[in-house]
Write a structure and sequence with these properties.
about 160 residues, alpha+beta, Alpha-D-Glucose-1,6-Bisphosphate, Chain A, domain 4, 7-stranded antiparallel beta sheet, 3 helices
């Protein structure tokens, strides 16, 4: 069984430009991947995106690719809240978008789990946790883009 990377794909009934905007705008990220408050994002290679995951922590992701409206990727140190993501402490999260008829296909790949030493007190950062989590997150993202879900992903307690 592959425990190094997670791959998910979803078809979204929306044009690629709308999907890109939802994927990369601070307000939208804060909803589909956060507690509802806008994320902080410096949308450029080398920029930092800060995401609040409530009880799971706040994460400083490092942006590694921005190719509107086709590709967006960042490093995520999900086992190390409040630390800037680096190649040594993080996974690589890659989103690719392609037009398909009147909609868009969003593909997600998160890789690099095998190289990480995830602390025992951070089971939510494991391959297993992320594998389950991304299934729900990309479904939620699709509903968010289509205007059917404006609730935050996580509680802000």
């Amino acid at each position: 069984m592959n425990t190094n990377s997670i791959e998910r794909e979803v078809s979204i009934e929306a044009p690629i430009e709308r999907v890109w905007e939802a994927l990369t705008s601070a307000e939208s990220i804060g909803t589909w991947f956060g507690v509802g408050a806008a994320a902080t994002i410096d949308l450029r290679v080398g920029g930092v995106m800060v995401i609040n995951h409530g009880d799971h922590g706040t994460f400083q992701t490092l942006i590694v690719a921005v190719d509107p409206p086709r590709a967006f990727s960042y490093r995520w140190a999900s086992a190390f809240p409040d630390e800037l993501a680096t190649e040594e402490n993080s996974t690589l999260v890659e989103f690719t978008l392609r037009s398909s008829g009147d909609g868009t296909v969003l593909r997600l790949v998160e890789s690099g789990f095998d190289a990480l030493d995830i602390p025992a007190d951070r089971p939510d950062a494991s391959f297993e946790s992320h594998s389950k989590g991304w299934t729900g997150v990309i479904a939620k993202f699709a509903e968010h883009v289509m205007g059917n879900d404006d609730q935050p992903l996580v509680s802000s307690s």
